Amino acid sequence: MNERISIEEIIRLYKIDYTFLDQLIDSELLHPETENSIRYIVYEELSHLERFANWHYDLDVNLPGIEIIHKLLNQLEELKNENRKLLQNVSKFENWEDVDF
Question: Does any domain span residue 101?
């Protein structure tokens, strides 16, 4: 079982509004687990929660803005990974100047 923390504990520790946390869950930016009517967030998602809370409370970014920024950062990471793979493939060629593109 993944390590997790209850939503009530998150609200207490991080001083986050319950409605903001619910909005993150409703927009599927966070994926809670439920056990015995208690909702939990797995530790792996806490870094996302902290980032979203910083954007919202410190930078005054609304939920649609958070969704867009999160999506763009994910796309950027995918592009970086794809670029890395392409560079690895290119480096496999000894005489890559002779390859027809």
Answer: no
Residue in 71, 59, 72, 56 with CA at minimum distance from that of residue 23: 56
In a domain, 98, yes or no: no
What domain range includes position 29? 4-93
**What one-letter code names the amino acid at 75?**
Q
Taking only the tens place, the pLDDT of each residue in 64-82 is 999 999 999 999 999 999 9
Strand ordering across the sheet containing 4-6: 4-6, 38-42, 33-35
Q: Which of helix, strand or coil describes residue 31?
A: coil
Read off the pTM. Answer: 0.80
